[in-house]
UniProtKB/TrEMBL annotation:
One MF term in the entry's GO annotations: tRNA binding
GO biological process, one term: thiazole biosynthetic process
Sorted UniProt keywords: ATP-binding, Cytoplasm, Nucleotide-binding, RNA-binding, Thiamine biosynthesis, Transferase, tRNA-binding
Catalysed reactions, as listed in the record: [ThiS sulfur-carrier protein]-C-terminal Gly-Gly-AMP + S-sulfanyl-L-cysteinyl-[cysteine desulfurase] + AH2 = [ThiS sulfur-carrier protein]-C-terminal-Gly-aminoethanethioate + L-cysteinyl-[cysteine desulfurase] + A + AMP + 2 H(+); [ThiI sulfur-carrier protein]-S-sulfanyl-L-cysteine + a uridine in tRNA + 2 reduced [2Fe-2S]-[ferredoxin] + ATP + H(+) = [ThiI sulfur-carrier protein]-L-cysteine + a 4-thiouridine in tRNA + 2 oxidized [2Fe-2S]-[ferredoxin] + AMP + diphosphate
NCBIfam families assigned: tRNA uracil 4-sulfurtransferase ThiI
Alphabetized SMART domains for the sequence: THUMP
Protein's name in the database: Probable tRNA sulfurtransferase
Protein's job: Catalyzes the ATP-dependent transfer of a sulfur to tRNA to produce 4-thiouridine in position 8 of tRNAs, which functions as a near-UV photosensor. Also catalyzes the transfer of sulfur to the sulfur carrier protein ThiS, forming ThiS-thiocarboxylate. This is a step in the synthesis of thiazole, in the thiamine biosynthesis pathway. The sulfur is donated as persulfide by IscS.
Family statement: Belongs to the ThiI family.
Binding site residues for ATP: L182, L183, H207, F208, R264, G286, Q295
Subcellular location field: Cytoplasm
Chain ranges of the THUMP domain: 60-164
Amino acid sequence: MIYDYLVVRFGEITLKGKNKKQFVVKLEDDVREKLRGFPQLEIKRHFDDLEIKLNGEDSADVLAVMQRVFGIQNISPAIKVGTDLEQIREGVLRVANQENGAKTFKIAARRKDKRYPIHGNELNQELGGAVLNQCDWLKVDVHHPDLLIRVEVGYHEARIYGREVKGAGGLPVGTSGKVMLLLSGGIDSPVAAYLVARRGALIEAIHFQSPPYTSDRAKQKVIDLSKKLRGFGGKFVLHLVPFTNAQVAIRDAVPEDYRITIMRRLMFRIAEKAALQRGALALATGESLGQVASQTLESMNTINSVTNLPVLRPLITMDKIDIAQIAKQIDTYDISIRPYEDCCTIFLPKAPRTRPDRLHAERFERKLAINELVDEAVQGIETMVIDADTNEDAFSSLL
Ligand code: ATP
Ligand code: MG
């Protein structure tokens, strides 16, 4: 590899106006944190990008890590040369030779230093001509080149970029505050966690378990999912809620077709309390409109009315098949389809009500000691900080 630098470009952060700096600083922290395993690197923050000087570290390895940091739009390997035309020409040829899988190319040169005597278009022609001369396997394609060689002429040096790689997008984790996400062992909620985290939220997950009706393997499944999700942020906090007493009480007091509704209302109340204790300003779920009985609008109304917190539902408009696709990309799918029951399935009625009514739900709840059940569950929460290593390779397929 010829490259000495990786240049990391910000995504939406660039639209942040006066707040931009704070986002960029957070992103820089995340990048430094993720790159701790590469001691030789030097990281410099510029107005428009982060510049990582490799000092001999492998650019492909560093790049793979950078692709999992939210807030990054794209990353280019780069070399730096002097600003003489001859030096730039030589640099461009080095890059063209390095990226030898390409059949077509384009040069996109610009001057940052407007006093530089050669204009962008002239540079394009000059450098393009040199590449055509020296690299007989390359042809120009100005619309869809296999290889776009960007050249940026600054005041003291010129940067020449190799093939740009897509970043994970989104916003740096934590810049959007904290969200308490209801994490089941299913396919959907881990995908919801990924999508909310991508928008800059720090996720804490809450999982309801009903031992002995649910097994240790169901718990392990949620821990394994958390390990995967941890790969996108720093640490990952998982709250395990003892839910057996609540579920048994519901089974004993509530008609079968309303059990799921009441159970979900309890989950939301418990999650809300946990959220407030932990400084989270919203709940999040993996619900998708119409997917199952508890995800009709009537159900969502009846269930949602127990909390005043916003409930984020990033999958609400998505089809199952598309959700599964993302689950595969973030490598949670195979864990999610392990067969162990979660707490909802064990007391599942054969025919849940698809249009539950809030007043009916409230009437059934009068037979339950709701506050006590909620308090008992919240007090019994076991909190784990997930910090085991994640399988980092798994995320490469995302990009
Ligand atoms: P998932 O695939 O996420 O389990 P699902 O399609 O199976 O979703 P439901 O079982 O109806 O749908 O659950 C809807 C949402 O409720 C889940 O996405 C999750 O956010 C939350 N949820 C369900 N069960 C649990 C649980 N045991 N612990 C925490 N949250 C849960
Ligand atoms: Mg489920």
